[in-house]
Amino acid sequence: MQPDITQIAPNDIWIVHRDAKYFIRYDAGAHQHIWREDEITAHDAQQILAAAPSTVMPVIIKVLRQIQQQQQQAGVSRPQSNWQRDTKNAL
């Protein structure tokens, strides 16, 4: 079954719904691409998807900060890629 993928335009941020779970896919790199796909709650996904384009970024930033805090608590000091873009299918 194909995942349901919604791009949060115009940013390179996607919400992916796959196997009854939600993920946020984003580029975590500052000077190079570090693609990540991290699990988020259904509540967070729905907040992002329901937000108006003019108000979505604060919601995304809150979710990404939570992910960053979880990674730091797990001892990860720098983001590492955990997702590779599928160049054949674009997403």
Write structural notes for this entry:
Residues 74-84 have a biased composition (Polar residues). Residues 71-91 are annotated as: Disordered. This protein is of the alpha+beta class. 30% of the residues lie in helices and 25% in strands. It is built from two helices and four strands. It has helices at residues 42-50, 56-73; strands at 4-7, 13-18, 21-27, 35-40. Strands 1-2-3-4 form a four-stranded antiparallel β-sheet. Strand 2 (13-18) and strand 3 form a beta hairpin. The relative contact order is 0.18.
| Straight-line distance between termini | 15 Å
Could you list the spans in which at least 5 consecutive residues all have pLDDT below 50? none
Order of helix and strand elements from N to C terminus:
EEEEHH
Beta-strand level of the residues, as a percent range? 25-35%
Molecular shape: globular
Spatially, the strands of the biggest sheet line up as 1-2-3-4
Counting DSSP H or I runs of 4 or more residues, the number of helices is 2
Biggest pleated-sheet summary: 4 strands, antiparallel
What percent of the residues sit in helical stretches (DSSP H or I)?
A: 25-40%
**SS content category:** alpha+beta
* Total domain count: 1
Using only C-alpha atoms, the radius of gyration works out to 13 Å
Number of strands: 4
Overall mean pLDDT: 87
